[in-house]
């Protein structure tokens, strides 16, 4: 085979489509039984935080009927239709990649497969990071990672502590408050940068596209000025403004939180920010300010790992955190490419499209 692509999410499908447009044979291998497996498992209320206009993958626009902010189910439908004309083999788990002469050999659940090029696109949010606070095993309530959350129905009338104030944790806290939880608290370790998803019709993504190549200190200064105008000071509610600049934080791997109801929920008291979790003692959760709370549920929005170590960890192509050292059209090793392992402020789907087209040019 010319090229094997590992992963049938948006990143892998985008590469396969870009290669096909250039006349290059490409087969996509997907361990799940369907394409877009990660998107199928996301929580019900999720929408793209980027606009439909700037989120289409190579060769096929997202239908206008899906609206400006595309819902999870519509993203899945788009990816299903997108994959229909591609060579996708589902139910094939890729366990290891090894160099083999002028190409690569993949050890898979379907046997060994060989190709001149391999593109790894298994997803940014691949392996959930479970909570590891001291004493977590003693908690007498329910512990749930955010990857298993679907909707607020199971939590009606219950006291929930959401841990983590990235985009997922912030949105799940709002979803729970709106969906009937008796109490919702949001544990915050590092105050996030909050941005309006859209202001006067201009999406935050558009600003991200415009500033992403500017110097970091300049973007930090601009973002700080904009935030003081657009975002109210929530310090009195327990959510102070961050002390690190927005783009400096992005360079460290933390994108801003897009407001899809968090500001209003905090101001109304529907969601109460509290200090970071430092431990658990039976029914009590210990917070960094010395206080204790006793929720019925600990909902841990504690993030994900890339999970690439079994596949390529032996090749010396990952950094100390498990992230690929190179990305996009520059191969990590001859014929080995990675895509989808960054979280850009200009929009994930947009960058996947750009990466796919660049990788296709490099492969050709």
Automatic annotation (TrEMBL):
Sorted alphabetically, the keyword list is: Oxidoreductase
Recorded GO molecular functions are: flavin adenine dinucleotide binding; monooxygenase activity
**Which residue windows are coiled coil?**
none
- CC terms in the record's Gene Ontology section: cytosol
Its protein name is NAD(P)/FAD-dependent oxidoreductase
Organism, as annotated: Cellulomonas rhizosphaerae
InterPro entries assigned to the protein according to its UniProt record, in alphabetical order: Auxin_biosynth/cation_transpt (IPR050982), FAD/NAD-bd_sf (IPR036188), NAD(P)-bd_dom_sf (IPR036291)
PANTHER family (UniProt xref): FLAVIN-BINDING MONOOXYGENASE-LIKE PROTEIN (AFU_ORTHOLOGUE AFUA_4G09220) (PTHR43539), FLAVIN-CONTAINING MONOOXYGENASE (PTHR43539:SF78)
The record, for Pfam families, names: Pyr_redox_3
